[in-house]
What does this fold into?
Amino acid sequence: MTRKDFIVNTCALCASATGMAALLGSCTLSHYISGTLNKDGLILSRDEFKIMQKGNTAYRSFIIVRNDALKFPVCVYRINDTEYSALWMQCTHQGAELQASGDVLQCPAHGSEFNNRGHIRSGPANTSLRTFPVTISNNELFIDLRK
Ligand code: FES
It folds into this structure.
């Protein structure tokens, strides 16, 4: 093996290991559920946001509802215990599916970014995301998909 081959092969291995680590990291951070779909919207338990950390209760900042009956997933952000936002994960630029990363939704197609309320952080998209009203009843969230 030449020195050049060694460097090329080593860099390729490092790049794939780094990519795999990022992929695994993003998988463990995102929590996917299907929710319960009725004719008006989605129902999910607020317990989906709970995680136990060293014996204490903590909360995920978002969960992703991916349901076969929906063309795109819905990202539900927990702003606080009484406020949630539900965002249609379709980019308003040219319609690509968005990816959630913390409090930001990113578009893999051309780089638009949206905050956890669906407002534009950076273009080329120039329209906010479609959002849905969220109401809390007991320990459940109802996401009204009619609007
Ligand atoms: S489709 Fe999302 S930025 Fe172009």
The first strand starts at residue 32 and ends at 33. Helices lie at 3-29.
